[in-house]
Amino acid sequence: MSNFSSLKGFKDLLPEDTPLWRRVEATAEEILQTFGYTEIRTPLLEPTELFLRSIGEHTDIVEKEMYTFEDWDGKKVTLRPEGTASVLRAYLEHRLGEGQVLQKLFYRGPMFRHERPQAGRLRQFHQIGAEAIGSLDPFLDAEVLSLLWFLLWELGVDGLALELNSLGCPLCRPRYREALLAYLSERADRLCDDCRRRLKTNPLRILDCKKENCREITQEAPASVELLGPECAPHFKEVQGGLSDLGIPFRINHRLVRGLDYYTKTAFELTTSRLGAQNAVAAGGRYDGLAEALGGPTTPAIGFAIGMERVITLLREKEPSPPKNALEERGPALFIAALGETPKRRMAPMLFRLRQEGIHAEMDYGDLGLKAQMRQADRLGAKQVLIVGEDEIKAGSAILRNMQNKHQEKIPLQDVAERLLSGAE
Ligand code: HAM
Q1: What is the Å distance from ligand 1's center to 306 Cα?
Q2: Cα distance between the two ends of the chain
């Protein structure tokens, strides 16, 4: 215990947590690479303006959730609340599209949003994301979705539903916005305070409101897919056709509008009923206008991000604690029980050499007696223990004890390393 604990909504990942995290990350990376994605790492801190321009000024994230401050030069900076804006910034800044039809990038790491912490919702959370930049082809939408679907399936996350919508483009969106506004304005007195405000700032977000009254009203609201223009309507049809060809089941959700303004055309979420209110495990969509909004050339793109904590929660349901033999598997090949100052000093070089050779070996850091050291070796899950006291040092030998079958033998000290390196028990 100390006087400090981590900030609300910020979580430590302890040694008992990290093996599963690493497994998820390794599996995801392998699959992403198979689908042609290469890794990009962008800074956690970006100019605030980047997120205002990309996520949108009238979104919850920008209005009330960003960790924004002035740095010592008086520049407004923000801890990234998501990865897409940074990836596209880097793509444009380093001209990653030059000479390429399509650039497929993946990333992972922490994101920061000052949301109200609750189950499944943190202030520092982690995403694995993928962005395919440079194509408008609906086949790509289906491919990106199949990648996401396969990735979560391979990780062992099952029972997911893919919810799909098309939000149109700058040509059809105004028509939809108008129709929606007309419908909602007639019913404004029954909307919640937040949604009445959204009528002026971001009416699409009203579809996403969780309040009972607002949900009742939006139930019958016009759907964006009904008002798609001549480019977006066939695009959406082809995305659906592509998904059917790949055998990916989906459901069209007219309410799916996403909390970030950069989306155009395809938008999606993968949800589960097993996570309570925070039911989205992954989400994404097309953002064909974002590159231009950031001052770059027209560059259609699509991507997704997976919420790592939510994936881990679902996997933990299936595998609540590390398997019983996990400790044994991770335990050292050798524990050196050196008894006394001289044995300890004499064994230190051997410990170093074994580790240099890639053998996991441990030694006691205090000056415990033999019994206590044996208990420690047991706790660590050591396969063998080398017992070395003053007498052994003088005789140039030691006792090697096999912790599994309890067999003990005396062996010359000079043979210990060879014995372990040859893998003999
Ligand atoms: P997002 O829907 O804001 O999209 O986040 C994606 C996923 O991150 C969510 O579905 C959820 O699993 C997880 N997530 C979001 N906020 C939290 C939180 N406070 N605590 C825990 N997990 C959370 C994006 O971020 C877009 N950049 C996705 C994208 C990529 N679109 C195109 N490319």
Answers
A1: 7
A2: 41
